[in-house]
Specification:
alpha+beta, globular
Amino acid sequence: MAQISFDEDFAGPSDYALLYRQLRLQVVPSLPPSNTGSWKRPAIKWREHEDVLTAQDVFDQWYGHQGEYRTRQNMGLITGKASGNVWVLDLDTHKNPQANEWLKGLLDLWNDGAPLVSPTQRTGGGGIQILFRSPEGWIPPTIKTSIGVDIRGQGGFAVLPPSMHESGVNYAWIKGYEPWLVDIKTAPSWLTDAIDDLASHFTSVGPSERTGSPDTAINPFGQIVDGREDYMRNLIWAKVVDHRREIHDAPFFSEAEAQQWMEDAFAQYEQTVKSRLVEAGVSNAELLEREGRGISEFTKKWLIAMSKWHTDVKIAAEVPKKVRGDVKTPEPALQMVQGDDGVWRPQFEAFPLLSVTMIRTLPDPKYLIEGLVIENGLGFFYGPPGCGKSFITIGMALSIAAGLEEWWGYKINKSGPMIYISSEGVSDLKFRIAAWEQATGISAADIPFYLIHVPINFMDDKEIERLILTIQYSDMLMGEVPVGIVVDTVSRSLPGADENLQKDMTLFIKACDKIRLAFDCTVMGVHHTSRAGNLRGSTVFDGAADFLFRISREEGVMIGEFNAKKIKSATDGWTKAFKLREVLCGDIAGNSSLYAEPALPEEVVVEDEWPSKPVCQDILSAMSKAWDAGKPWSTQPNTRRDGRYAPMLMTRYEVEEKMAAKMIDTWLRNGVIEIDLCDARTKTKGIKVMSHLQDAPSRYGSYYAN
């Protein structure tokens, strides 16, 4: 091919995407790296992009001048038809020496030991991936093997440079093998034959349904979804050896006994592994059989193991079985492998170690709502009953689903499906949505906002699995993953649990994390306050939350407070005023509902008589000077001892503490003052003056009663 002009030193994500597009490769945006969840997959619905190269206008929406993903580092290749029958040979040479031996043996035999010249990348994890084109009439299988050789065939997915790995290392093309310098080679027949041979060894004999390899070996419920054949083989060997130990040198055992042994072992296997196929009403055992991972393959391997009863099994059974607490039994020695540098090292799966340079390349914290709600995080909106918290969360969820640019003045960075889980007040929800439509002028009929109106027990793993499967295979979502899930209320999702017990609430947080990691989405809980006004329940909530917002409103008053108690990686401690207003739903029956929105300063009314305007000015000036001096006035009573309690200090101006508290509350509602962090070193928070009286609107005037 004619070499493509491309300078990787000055190329950004959109340049890489355009390069792959010029090569007729189906490049799509992918998820950012994560140390806790499955991230090696597209960030968009991708089934519709498996067969044909996507249209130019769609590509421009992703990577054009104003493209949504033009600055996102992570991207990937959909293999197969959409990319001109390109497939990927994935070799985990850094973890499994057999992968390198397999390829080297083929090259020595068929290619005089020379490497195949085709685009080759070093993955962020340390392996290599080579791009090939399928010869006419050959369809590459999608398989994952225990020797570290994987194939990404039709509809497969491979992460591409310049994407970042969870280790902090970028995927990169190997020098001299970049796709802008060398052609994508059509796979030679000896390589396709070797891959077909691999497929026959790592799938069962006979027809079976092949499924794509997942990015994680264990699903959120502890079941094995990858590496099942290795587990089957190891389990069978362990069970056969155990039975040999139990009967020692007894020469005979009945056929019925042996059959029962196998059935018991398969029952354990079937409960531990999970089929990748999903079909309503079909058992896991049947789906495993269709994949070639079921009872037929199990029986074959079992009979092979039993055939070694008097040889290898007998020898293995003579080694005492290690039991819990048996400190005398030595640990098996680590297998040693020789690295590319010639040094022999123990073979084990190491935890990633990041240098300072690597740490600096980690992605910055991202927000679903800028400076407010963290993307892929967990948080809570809490307050007493009737404070308006559900009106706030519903409005926020609808705004995200509708793709609005902002919510309450905060930029919405990511829009998409929102799932609202609520079993209370459901009959009123349609009026709340109608009120939101009237207030925003936007029809909610086609936005991806969905309600689950039955209680879900977050203490039950099976219920959480059912919830995840419901979302994954919903016809309404059509493969889209939610960007946020709201649980309203937390209490309804904890039947029989004690909210004050750490062990119970840890289970709830674990369930939220399973959901969050399954979809890389934000999970938000709506919860109540305790009698003391704090977030009700165990401190586990406070520790696990990425953001906490306290909602408060006096009974009969339409103005309330939205207080940011905690926001990771952003300023918190501030308080904003909001209001609930009645909005007609626009239906024939004349129904109405409340709608939550930020309050304007002139909408706050003070009934008591305030001090004169000059006195208010003097108080605000004193507050401002105290802030500048690093000793801000505080609204917390426990600051009396260090002389910073604002109501106490305001008595110097002949203002009673009760009146002083109301003045502070009103100024907070109107944005005249805010609670903010004054000294990051000492974590000192206090009152910061934001507006002077002469700048205040006239209705509530000078922020004192006329």
